Amino acid sequence: MRLDFRDPEPVVVDLSPDKGVVSTLQESKVQCTTQDKDVYLYYFLLRYPGKTLVFMGSIDGIRRLHPIFQHLGIQAFTLHSNMEQKQRLRNLERFRSTIDSVLIATDVAARGLDIPSVDHVIHYQVPRSADSYVHRSGRTARAKQSGFSLLLVGPDERKAMRLLLQSLGRAEDDIPDLQLDLDIIDRLKHRVSLARRIDAVVHKHTKADHEKNWLKQAAKDLDVEIDPDFVHIEDEDGDERAYRKKKKEKEDAAALKRELEFLLKQPLVANGVRAKYITSGARSVVDNLISGRGHEKIVGVNKAAAIEAVAKA
């Protein structure tokens, strides 16, 4: 005897939220140039500390962004498919156990992994599909807890954002803009520029040293001599100009590091507050610092959740 489970009029029960995301998730967006995304991300991480999951569209993007934020003093870890499983698990554990940490990931982290207590999800690029956006955003605001999702939208991504929202049955105005302190953001641009320049020099010499060491070891194993003209690698011991050039680049990078370290030690002061005379005519600033209400890294503003910056916008 065979049972027929086919129903000519099946009932479909859709348990997904009306807008694709849970009601406890606050969404927001920042529209900026593609070049400035690093700056706006840095601003957000400073202004709203917590556990932040940053999604990027490619592994190359992660490899570019991660060292820049390390130079900026941000506790950031990475997660992507080219990593060994042991390293993935190690980075996940570091992210879980580190206060105010950042995990920069591809979609590997969006499905199937247990990443509890994520305060913020940031989409560095507009996701390619509504499904990706919903699952990425779903890494926060779990178990009826509140959460925050931020879209960084470049000029060439406006159309993609509108199509994404349309597929969710929503309009562009449904996702409010994040309130920003543009004065602070302008001052952060130099920090990010220094970090990029430092990383460019470090990356250049790390890559060159790796290639040289690999070729030398390979030649040694094969018992052959390397032709410098063929492999396009200059031997520093035999080329004084190449040696001096590399030495000068390293000295310049060291000077950039000192400049960046000096800036990172300086307090960021909100517009309207004089850094040298905080106690004169700014009693509320001092009171907030003493009481613990004041922001730890930006003088003149109080601690606040990102959701409040949207509500007040």
TrEMBL record:
Gene Ontology cellular component terms for the protein in this record? cytosol
Top-rank taxon, per record: Eukaryota
Q: Check the record and name the PROSITE patterns matching this protein.
A: HELICASE_CTER (PS51194)
Which Pfam families does this chain map to? Helicase_C
Keyword field: ATP-binding, Helicase, Hydrolase, Nucleotide-binding
**Reactions catalysed:** ATP + H2O = ADP + phosphate + H(+)
- Name one molecular function that GO assigns to this entry: hydrolase activity
Look up the EC number in the record and give it: 3.6.4.13
Tell me the ranges covered by the Helicase C-terminal domain, including all copies.
Answer: 38-183
| Name of this chain's protein | RNA helicase
Which organism's genome codes for this protein?
A: Tulasnella calospora MUT 4182
